[in-house]
User: Fold this.
Amino acid sequence: MAKFDEDVELDTSQVEDQRGRGGFARGGAAVGGLGIVGVIIMLLIQVLGGGGGGTLPNLDDLNGTQVGGGAPPSDIAQECRTGADANTKEVCRIVGYTNSIQKYWLGEFKAQGERYSQARTVFYTGGVNTGCGAASSAVGPFYCPPDQRVYIDLGFFDELQSKFGAQGGPFAEAYVIAHEYGHHVQNLSGILDKVSRDRRTGPNSAAVRSELQADCLAGVWAKHAVETGYITNLTQDDINRALDAAASVGDDRIQESIQGRVTPENWTHGSSAARQRWFGVGFQQGTPTACDTFSPATVE
Assistant:
């Protein structure tokens, strides 16, 4: 199992702990289904559950709704100091993954003569205000382009196993975070702006291609995770658990589970097989240039 270097210092400035704070929405743009699960829960209600149509929910519809609640946030700066903490505490582990992922992308952008702008990972419970409007934890982990933050209710990792049937484990969590930061890379590269203008769904839609590219970019980071100095070893079991997590949130598997049939025309994230395949491409080739999911005629 992947372990953190016990002596490596964790940078908690890259995270925000908003657990238990809640608040009110203040406007903003829709997320657009860019998270690993993004709008899966909403889709189950609006599309898979017979609501019809393939329209993604706009989080602005929640404006004015009070969200949040739960226990007061912990003091992460005190709780998460070194890799030793990341090896024993989930919240510190996510801090460590965030640090490792951003260190890799900082170096990669610099090597290409480009500037990487850091994003923050925001922990919340129940609901949260974002630059994309108000969101509840039912939305799942997501990236919000306007405020350049990754949002996650840590309870999702339990749901990944209980609701989506994933094996779980630390590197399944790493895959989730790395996927969301893949969207941040896309945002900095101007890709998300283009994708947001195409609201079509289906196996080869821009939305699916964007999600599969984020899976691939997650695989690229995994290839170089040990090189960042945060993680000391990576096993085949770790990679298998990341692949299993990717498969568990494939559109086809979720549709089959909920509605008993697969309707590819409504896909927004890609099939289980495609999600696994593109994560594998990134991991095997270890370079972002391998993650061109927009040029091939088909990505499934």
User: Anything to note?
Assistant: The first strand starts at residue 3 and ends at 4.
